[in-house]
Amino acid sequence: MAIPYGAIPRPIILGIVGDSAAGKTTLSHGIAQILGADRVAVLCTDDYHRYNRRQRKELGITALCPECNYLDIMAQHLQLLRAGEPILKPHYDHTLGDFGPPQYVVPHPFLIVEGLLGFYWQEMRSAYSVRVYLDPPEDLRRRWKVRRDTAQRGYTEEGVLRDLDIREADSAAYIRPQREHADVVVSFYPNEAARYKNDAHLNVRLTLRGTLPHPDLSQIIEDDRSGCVRSTLGRENGRAVEYLEIDGSISDKPARALERGIIDHLDACGVSSPAALGKYSDTRARHSHPLALTQLLLAYHLLRARQRDEIEV
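^ that's the sequence the OP posted. Answer follows.
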């Protein structure tokens, strides 16, 4: 059932930025399942492209270039949504490579904004309660993009690889620098023993920055005898960070203990782990404990942000 306009406080907004096929939609789907699909709206910033696929090819411009996107409208819409106001936004259809009818977006308790340039301007960054950057190794991302674009968007493998090479300069200039604006950097990467075979048992490395109050999982990590969960401290560009690493080979028991530890930090939020948590697809449907735990940690931060907003009000 639709939530009546004006019946909710201003949305808590999660920004997920990463290069094309970095895993943004897979990550956001599980988070929405945790929070409740009726409480979450998802907005893709690709909808703010200035040109369709044919026009981009004619102009020799990539979708990663800021000049190829209406960033001013995107920033304005984020601020309106953050204030609890509805928007009428454009819509880009990736299957057709063209624009469809505009879409009316009503504020929900939570909003997930995913795309390429969501952290590019300060006006955008200030709208988010939580900022996440996806940073898989380039060889893994390229493999994901080939698989997705050939299966879902009508490209040939040769065409995808050619476009990746064309886009590389813009990726380096505009996408990757946004990593510095994230509260959490998520890096899925393969076990060396299983490298290039499939996506099963990918490890994850979470770079947790002090811009958010992260849950204390030290006791759970200390009690873990599997060696599949590790926490270390480091520094990046002069800032202290914590690295939380979870092996893809982690078994059910330690994974459930870590999951329970995160849920316990939610106090009265009443969150449980739905069946869809940690689901992804390569050549078939699979489950990943590192993905599930990442989704749960990010949902924790959104729920905590909601609690803080309610206390302030």
